[in-house]
Amino acid sequence: EEPHGAAPVDFLQELPSCQSARRRRGDTQERRPALLGTAGSRGAAARELPQERDKLADRPAREQPKCMAEKRRTRDFQQADTERLSRWKKWKRTSSKSLKKALSEVKGLSSYLVLWRHDIHSIEGKFGTGIQSYFSFLRFLVLLNFIIFILMFSFVTLPTVISKYGLFNSTIAYISPKNRDDVCTVYEPGGNKGLVYFYTYLKDLLSGTGFLEVTRLFYGYYSIDAVWISIMRYNLPLAYLLATFAYLALSFLWIIKRSVEGFKHNLVHDADPFQSYCNKIFAGWDFCITDPSAARLKHRSLQYELQTDLQEEKLKQKIAERRMEEKLRIYSLRIFINIIVIAILSGCFYSIYKVTVFSQEKSNDIYNANSLVNLLVQYLPSMVITLANFIGPLIFSFLIRFEDYTPAFEIKLTLLRCVFVRLASIGVLLFSLWSQISDCGNDKCKPCGYNYKLYPCWESDVGQEMYKLMIFDFIVILAVALFLDFPRKLLVTHCSCKLVQWFGHKEFEISDNVLEIIYGQTICWIGTFFSPLLPAIATIKYFIIFYVKKIVLIHTRKPAARPIRASSSNFFFLVVLLIGLLLAFIPLGVSIAHIPCSKACGPFRNFNTSWEVIPDTIIQFPTGLQQLLFGMASEAFAVPFFVVLCILMFYVIALARAHKRVVEQLREQLVLESRDKMFLIRKIAEAQR
């Protein structure tokens, strides 16, 4: 009996999986315990199997992984089992099924209420999921801006409207400023009076000055300290600041929530190059495509992706075989090109700075207040920023060819540089404005803490700059569609000139279009504090842009020859959007906590900075609550909280690494199982022979 009992063990030890496990352990003397451990784990799995089977039996028949005949038998068995239950359990099970059915119907009906549902599905069917992801991202920004607008309107604008018209027995409370110089409270907006020409209204509409400056669109209008609604006192400065924190927190959490799914997919997709090849070959087809031309394009894109992957592998092999002289030459060239890139960025930022200073100094010329020249001077910063955003990416795309990177890294580095140009230009503009606001030469800032002569209400001036950036960006998008895309389409269609045909149809570059709308969204986040109704303008802007881009895509553009997957593109869009949001935190934080508030306008005119409304409100709380809040803001609470946060972070990182190791082991087991099958097939064939 001993040989018969030992034979299966010897046979199992010949399996590739067992030999691989022995090599991994490095100890050939532990074969028997390893086998016992394997048997033990199998016994544990066998004990867990009945529990899983019981859970599966409790599920409805249609949700069980069985054929239709077995599902019908399971359903009949469940119905017969239900008849033996008590009335309470019958009612409970029936109500649970009815509730699930009602929720399912409501969910199905709510899908028809999704904005642009049919349009996005048609785009997905004609052009694939890559381009569809751009329009879904645009829909997300429309919803986000609409919710931000509802938030700011409800807590900031609506109370002022209620108090102005005396609704709900409401009144306005003003607090006279204390220890303030009279020169600091002088603010005379340049509203239009008397007979005004039409082009003056058009100029004011484009620049945010004139009649728009004294409306609810800008910060300077909300010069109210409190609103009494019946017997309730509404603290408008506190509500203004908390609404700002709320829309920033809402944007941050919403972006993080949407990006988690894409991050998980990218983490799994990029873990193994071999898996990437398998995904492209066996799961790369987009079954949403119904258009024949789009199907041919998808064939070419899959072929291009495989060629690109093979080229990258070949290039990696070439990089590994480089000699020291070649490495020195390439690194020296890359350093030189990066110096050129830094010089270009410095030139762009310096131009934006000088133009902003010039625009602020010349736009207040009262003799030129209503002229076209004054409007152009006011729009100079927006024009220079747009020009830098247009020229910079073209230069970067040309220079990246000489740096000898892999194709995938070329795309990422070029996009990173383009993102930096677009978003950093906004920061340079704000820095230029703040340098003018805080320009204290010749004791200009002594009475008020800022340049009150040039900027009596500097928050409204910053809001006007953000308003002009958003309007000009919208005008540029429309102008490109009307005066470049459609004429190019007509020329390519009706002109047989070789030069025109060489240009051909322009591709729909997803990354460039995404950077375009993220740039506008960053402007909206920064400008909402200085212009509370700016999210409403952004909502209308993106709503129109959706239809403009849809028409441009269908009639004038062709899909890119180098498309990106919807999952990876969605994750990339949200990461860049998160970078824009984090960039918006910096100027808003400086404006709220560092720069002195205007003493002539706004809800914070009785505070040195906007942040001071928080401690001023906490002082009115009971003593115990005050001590608790101030204690939470002290170093004694912050240091232990930071330590605990670091421990939790390290724990999560360790847990993620452990999960990653488990995933790697499972992949190895899948590979070994396939080898075991081949080994068994070989043994069976040998036995049959």
Automatic annotation (TrEMBL):
One cellular component (GO) term of this entry: plasma membrane
Q: What kind of membrane protein is this, topologically?
A: Multi-pass membrane protein
Q: Tell me where it mainly resides.
A: membrane
Give one GO molecular function term: mechanosensitive monoatomic ion channel activity
- Which key words tag this protein in UniProt? Membrane, Transmembrane, Transmembrane helix
Tell me one Pfam family matched here. TMC
Q: Where in the cell is it found?
A: Membrane
InterPro entries assigned to the protein according to its UniProt record, in alphabetical order: TMC, TMC_dom
The superkingdom listed in its UniProt entry is Eukaryota
Which segments show compositional bias classed as Basic and acidic residues? 49-78
Q: Which residues cross the membrane?
A: 140-162, 238-256, 331-353, 379-402, 414-434, 571-595, 637-656
Give every TMC domain span. 457-567
Map out region (Disordered) in residue numbers.
1-78
Q: Which family does it belong to?
A: Belongs to the TMC family.
Record-linked PANTHER family: TRANSMEMBRANE CHANNEL-LIKE PROTEIN 7 (PTHR23302:SF42), TRANSMEMBRANE CHANNEL-RELATED (PTHR23302)
> Any idea what this protein is called?
Transmembrane channel-like protein
- Organism of provenance: Rhadina sibilatrix
